[in-house]
Every structure is written in structure tokens, then in C-alpha cells.
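Why Maleylpyruvate isomerase family mycothiol-dependent enzyme? Reviewers of the renewal asked for a concrete example.
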Amino acid sequence: MFASLTPEQWTTPSLCAGWTVREVAAHLLAPLETRFSWFRVLRTVVRYRGDLDRYVDEQTREWAERPTDELVAGLRRLAGRQLNVPFVGPFGPMADTCIHLRDAARPLGLDVNPPPSSWRPALDFLTTTNGARAFLPASRLTGLRLIATDQDWAWGEGGEIRGPSEALTLAVTGRAVALPDLRGPGVETLGNRITS
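Here is what the prediction returned.
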């Protein structure tokens, strides 16, 4: 997808507040090229005083200064690399990749979307304690039942929210743009929680 974009598309605002499509691509590449070490993690936590969101934003903006061809080549070269990130394991990066692909594709009107079988582990992960802790406020899904309409997947108890796996994932991770694709009595509750 990124290889086919025009210069104007690279500068399009993504669904990630403050990031263009270029920053999303850079964010996807950075962890693939960065070698993990506990020393680096501890140094980063200390340097950023525990504000890992600020670290990710600064790292992403730095990587986004790379030429477009370099970003695309890196994503292609490392597409098969599996990451097992501390605290979130391998499903954190997988969920992150699915979500950020749509963060870039949706504003461009591109129908580049992982299949439901790829969204399933992302949804499973996001509804676990580790996934919720990493990607959304713990109370966001309280009293809600999520039901995918494009595969056999459901989770939770309470006000139902039905829709495609992609829209469910984007909405629970705070992307209000996906709310119109969802149906059910729990949609308003979720909308209030992500927009307040």
C-alpha cells in the first residue's frame, strides 16, 4: 500500500492524532529495525520519565524524516519479522500493525484491510488485561458486549455493539470514525467514552 502512494497521500492526516500517513509508516518500521535490549528499555523509561507515549511520538517523527523509498524498502524487507515485545508479547505488535494500517488507509479511502482472521487475534488481545492496559483505558469496555459480524467472535457482557472486526477494533482503541459502522445499544456508550 505505502509503495503506491502519491506525495500528497503521504502527507494526509491519519487517524492517529498529529500523525500523517508518513508518520504511521515510520511508526510501523521503527520497532522492526530496533533491536530489543532491557538496557535500552530502562534507559528510555528513565530518559522520558516513564512517558512512553512521548518517546514513541519523538521516535516516530525522527524516523519519518527518512526518504519515502527508504521507509517502503524497510517495510518490505522486514515484513516477515515477528516481534515479541515485553509486557504485551507478539500480539501487541500484531494488533498495532492491523490498527495502524487502517489508520493510514481509511483517510485515503483505500480498501486495504487485513482479513477477519487477522483481526481475531487482535480483538482477543485487546480484550485481555495486557492488551487493554497497553491500548485503551481499563474501563472503556466495562458493561459492553462486542460481536463481530464478519466472523464468529464475541466478547463481554452488557450493551451490544455489532459490526465488522475492523470497525470494532478501531472503535475500542479510540477511533470515533469507526462508530458509524457499528450497531447496537452499546455504541452510544462507547462513543461517549472515546470522545469525552
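The chain is about 50% helix and 5% strand. This is the kind of structural detail the renewal will allow us to pursue systematically.
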